[in-house]
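Supplementary Text 2. Reproducibility record for the structural model of the 374-residue chain.

All settings were left at their defaults, and a single model was retained for analysis rather than an ensemble. We include the record here because the model underlies the residue-level annotations in Supplementary Table 4.
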Amino acid sequence: MRGTHGSDPATRILTTLIALLMLQLGSLVAPAYACGCGAMIPDKSERIGVDREESAVHWDGRTETVVMRFNVHGNARKAAWIMPVPSRAEVTLGEPALFDALESLTAPEERDRYYFWPREGDWPFDDPWGDGSAGAAPSAPGTGVGVVGRARLGPFDVARLTATDPDALGEWLHTNGFELPERLPGALQPYVERKWEYVAVRLAPDEKGAALHGKLSPLRISFASTELIYPMRLSRLATTPQTLGLYILADHRMEPRSPIGGDRPEVTFAGRIDGDESHALALLTGGKPVHLTALEQEFPRPERIDDDHHLRTVADTPYREVAYTDRLLTVGDGIPAWLLTVGGGLLVAALATLLAVRAKRRRSRSATGVRSIA
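Retained model, structure tokens:
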């Protein structure tokens, strides 16, 4: 008699297909934890991703101010975010115009770069028939969590917290509607050991029922700090590659001590600026001149992030990227230089040939006349 534990091939194939389908459906509804320097946490049934995290950081040697803005995508209608800070923080709304001002100040210098010989798109290689286009109150004792304050700031519900136990902090977040990944308490452990505090934020779009999408309103977080530090450790919880754009405003040029598990940070601008070039910039710098350093960094594998960014003073060497526009070299009223050169060369060659022919004819006539006299 055939054993009851067996099954025919068709049944096994069907079971396998069902398992694969359920696994795929599970991956579609699972939240994508997108982390910036904190942890961005959607509801369990929704997804959210951070395309880019931008932060402007001002440090005067005593106080650090971080203005953060996220560019997000997904279908989440609300999400939570948590950021560790080394001391008591003050949280307000930031100025969206700040990033426009910083982008303008750090934009690459535009230069023209000329080439001599025609390329594709230049005459005679262009397409004459085409269109020219190319393809509150502290918690009760013993809970391990203290609520320093809670406030509503625009679309943000902001809680400032202390914690002596990462699990207690995770439980508080969960009880108060902050869904979080299971690994978050473990990631918070180093901050709990150093007695850091936390800024927990719940955010939702202004329009009820709409998904979080695009550039969110910036948040401004200020705290006392004897060193310039940018929290990044929680970003290791991200499941997709991360991009960080960091504007650092301080007395001198500042750069990270190490890549902390990401690609090497790239300096795209460094130089002295006036701190009052715009109202939004003056609100951050107090209107005083500062040294601005712009950094870009990629984190292809966020799970490798092993520390926060500790920034150090380096030589105040100015730097600015240069964006070149290649143009065909022309003279006068747009006449290609190569055409004049080639045309001139052909003309000279033609004249030389003509003169040589005439000289030959004259010599021939002269020789003929001499023979006739003889």
